[in-house]
Structures are given as C-alpha cells and as structure tokens.
Amino acid sequence: MLTAQQIYNRLLDSYGPVQWWPGDEYAIMITAILVQNTSWNNVEKTVAELGERLSPKFMDSLSEEDLQPLIRSCGFYKAKSRYVKKLTAWFKGYDFEVVEVSQKPMLEVRDELLALPGIGAETADAILTYAFRMPSFVLDAYTRRFMARLGYDFKTDEERRAFLTDGIERSANMYGWYHWLILDHCKTRCGKRIKCEGCVFGDVCRKIDR
Ligand code: SF4
Known about the structure:
The protein is mostly helical.
C-alpha cells in the first residue's frame, strides 16, 4: 500500500502544478458554502455576476431576501442566503479581518464555524485551510471514495485524516494542495464513473467500490 506522501507524489506528477481555491479569503468562505450540492460551474457563474459585490461589507448590508436572487444559480438559494448571512455576521465579529481569526487557536475557530448553520466538517475545514491558512485536512465524498477504491479500509474520517496527514508536512499549503489534487484526480477519472486506463494508481489500486 502507498503512503500518504507516495499518493501525493503520484497525484502531483499527474495533475500538478498545485492549485489553490480561487478568490480572496472572503470569496473562499462564501464559495465554500455556495458549492454545496451544486457544480463548481454554477459557483463560478455566480461569482462572476457578483463581481465586486462579493465583499463582506456589501453582503452584510443586504437582507437575506435581497441576497437570494444574487445566488439563485447555485441552488438552495434560500437556505444558502441564510448561511452566507450568518457566516458574514460571524466574520463581522472579527471586524472582517482575516488576521484576527488566524491568531486564534484553530480548534476554537473550527468549533465556531461548526456552530453556524449550513457549515459541516467539510465546509469548516475548507474555510480553515483555504481562507485562514490553518491546517485542517478537508475530507469529502471524493476523498472517501478514492481511498476506498485504492483499498484502504477506513471506518471514520478521523482514520482517513490520520493516514493522509501522516508523514507529510503539517501546513495549510500542503493540506490545501493535497485536497485539490485529489479533487482533480476524482473529477478527471475517479468519480462516479471511473476511467482506469492510464491511471497513475493502476498498479496498486484494488478498484473496490464500498
Ligand atoms: S485505477 Fe481506477 S479506481 Fe483506481 S484510482 Fe485510478 S481511476 Fe480510480
């Protein structure tokens, strides 16, 4: 079985150079919510339509009802407008200053995010890693399926996280790059449909669908 570093190296060889979640810190926070249960294409369209209005001060000035039509393309717009407003209000508690959040212990910030509506572990970890540069490895459905297909029989996300962060540099950069490479791999060839021919994991993958 490959180590976490060996998996990373193969992903990097195939899908590098490394990439980062696009947008400034606030845009990353908001798009982490908007992308729930929709495609990234819809998020990109909404971000393009919002333009400079995708700022914490502008979003803070809107009512939920005003916000709804602006994010309609992302689906579930009523719920998402509430989540965006709650997340923005939370960020306002830090004067909309990324550095104010980043100075707090990561687990405290994580708990605060998880207490907000619409923010589960995956979204919280994405916001921590990509917006606030705190190393909290993102585990999502793509990653679970990819690991299972390779043959790793993990029962919990804690087990997956422990494996994927073992022996690799503990930094937001590394965790963010790694998650993005897994996304690239899963979207390219290891999603609901698999394209195994030519896959860089072909020699070790057990192709198990759990
Ligand atoms: S060999 Fe197939 S199932 Fe295994 S990681 Fe590659 S694409 Fe996925």
